[in-house]
Amino acid sequence: MRVRNLSRALALALALAGAGCGDNKIKVKGVVTLDGSPVDGALVTFVPEGGGSQNAIGVTQQGGAFQLTTLKQNDGVAPGNYKVTVTYGEGVETAPAGNVRDAMQGVNKAQRQKKPPPKYVIPALYTDPGKTPLRQKVPPDGEVKFELKSK
């Protein structure tokens, strides 16, 4: 069983729990690269600048591709200007469990074990909504690309 990062689950819960925006959403899809290589398994978050809209999130798949979700899967995002964050954290591998208690014990044990270095190291600059240099006006065609640099 693969357990995702707590921050991913929290971001998803916040995005799905918020009040709805209008029906004028644009389906946004894009690609994230780091030093020219696609990043899979990263959480992309669009945070509205100036309020009024709702956060939208997407998780990059193989090849770095993602689609944004606000309330329903891949429903897009309201037009506007957004700060963009990209975070990456590997989940932990655990053995199958027969009940919740066993599952939680497995997760706790796996998290205490020495882990290999993460597959990707996204610079902290891109992970903080207050510091990220990434800005995006939602384009009418919904196509975006974020080319991150490690240095």
Nutshell version of this structure?
This protein has two helices and ten strands, in the order βαβββββββαββ. With 151 residues, the protein is α+β, with helices and mostly antiparallel strands.
General description of the model:
The protein is an alpha+beta fold. It has one domain (2-140). Helix content is 17%, strand content 28%. It contains two helices and ten strands; from the N terminus they run βαβββββββαββ. The protein has helices at residues 6-17, 100-112; strands spanning 2-3, 29-34, 37-38, 42-48, 56-59, 65-67, 81-88, 92-93, 135-137, 143-148. Strands 2, 3, 6 and 10 form a four-stranded mixed β-sheet that branches. A four-stranded antiparallel β-sheet has the order 5-4-7-9, covered by helices on one side. Strands 1-8 form a two-stranded antiparallel ribbon. A hairpin with a 2-residue loop joins strand 2 and strand 3 (37-38). The chain is globular. The N and C termini lie far apart (34 Å). Mean pLDDT is 80; it is low at 1-21.
